[in-house]
Structure prediction request, 347 residues.
Amino acid sequence: MTKIALTGVRVFDGTGLTEPTTVVINGSLIGSDPVGAEVLDCAGATLLPGLFDAHVHLLTPDDLTALAAHGVTTALDMACWPRERVDSFRGQVPDIRSAGLPAIGPGGNHAKMPGMPEEAILTSSGQAAGFVARRVTEGSDYIKVVIEGDLLEQPTIDAVIAEGKAQGKLTVAHASSVDAYQRAVRAGADVVTHVPRDGVLDAATTARMVEQGQVAVPTLAMMEALTTKVGADGYAFSRDSVAALYAAGVPVLAGTDAFSAPMLPFPVVQGASLHHELELLVDAGLSAVDAVRAATELPARHFGLPDRGAVWTGLRADLVLVEGDPTHDITATAKIHRVWAAGRVVG
Prediction:
């Protein structure tokens, strides 16, 4: 069993950086006893918990390699199929969770995606129970519904969310317009991903999210790519919606919607885009400390992964050693010296 003592390192503790200290990696976990450990002098460096990207789409093994190289030790996939492909990504680095196949409405952009299985397309609320049951059987970690215009009627959205919860699954809703966001909130989705490109979220919606304990994964990197990078002007709505969510007290998690298939002239790439996402979150009003929490503590908490997300004795040794102080300069998260996933050096 490998034991390593990282000495002289400042640690992100959720509120800032500690004074220089020693952190022990004992096998796959964070330990407490440095006796007998190999010493790694980390003076001047900062130790972060392993990073999350709370919205990716996995396609090939190269996606995992890119994520891990940029400090992402947990990736939350938001649509991947078939089951065999999802399963092929499990047990590797980063550690993944997946929605598997999402529920979508007929006729929209998602239904037209190449290879989209027919069973993803729902036309009535009566199909929700069967859809969710199949995802549970396949091993999906959470249930995702895509709200795209009015292609899914509210009773169908409600039924998918309710059935997912009845099966003990976290529920996630895709929503990139004000109306879709309101539908997702109304349905009670645990997580709402993306933010509107056609307006700014109103106070009643953000207040209801706080009341219902809902969280947001804005994917500003993708919203930027879909708007300013292709000639539209909706990114300001997305940015200001994040500001509204944050000001209201809605937990904001870092996710990018990274996808390696060639779909946009300026693609949202795996790994590197997470660091850009953190910069965009800060630009939208998050403090640098809360931006780091958005990629560590908060996704661990809200996606039910209590064994990671912090640098505490007994947790998984998912760690990222960086240069600089990301609590004052968020770009420091990208200045990576070394990454450990379950105690093993990545790369």
User: Anything to note?
Assistant: The chain has a mean pLDDT of 95. DSSP finds eleven helices and 16 strands in the chain.
